[in-house]
Amino acid sequence: MANDGEFQEQVRHLGKLVTQFDELPDSAAKVAGRELVQLLMEVHGRGLERAMEIVFDAGNFAPGIVDKMGQDPIVGNLLLLYSLHPDEFKIRVQKAIERMRPRLRKLSCTVELEDLQEGAVRVRLSTSGHSCGSSTNDLRSIVEDGMYEFAPDVTSIEVLGLEEPTPVGFVTLESLLGQRLAGVGTGNSLERDGVD
């Protein structure tokens, strides 16, 4: 049985194969291959739909089972692929935010949903008045990874409240020359410290 990482790798590989297939020149083999994939999708989709109906019909005999199926990274993504996921997009985004909160809290950060428009998500990160103790890229990765885990169909993620990192190795002209810039644009642009 594939674990979560293997499944995600298989999904990525499948996406690459589909792209390569679409780039092939038109031919009878390409048409047959496309029909084969479509037929397999329909057969698997019908099977999954029937499985979900059986679970729903179980009612109180399987409390919480539908929610567990939706939260499982493998089953949930498969249900999403066939439009059978039990949670709508907004609910999955909210669950993603709840899941990433404890990890961000350890970095003295909080996260709130700012806006949700179709597939585009905007969240805001806030600190408790001091540095999160983590880089901007680390915080962005936590948000993006958490969001894609629950809502892989998100089309864009905007993270507000992140400070853009200062370019590494950047040395100001002032510190390099031991001078301070003064009177820029007045014809007296450089004034050396201690020198008139």
From TrEMBL:
Residues 93-158 form the NIF system FeS cluster assembly NifU C-terminal domain. Coiled coil: none annotated. Transmembrane segments: none annotated. It comes from the Bacteria. Gene3D superfamilies: Fe-S cluster assembly (FSCA). GO terms for molecular function: iron ion binding; iron-sulfur cluster binding. InterPro entries: FSCA_dom_sf, NIF_FeS_clus_asmbl_NifU_C. SUPFAM superfamilies: Fe-S cluster assembly (FSCA) domain-like. GO terms for biological process: iron-sulfur cluster assembly. This is NifU family protein. It comes from Tunturiibacter gelidiferens.
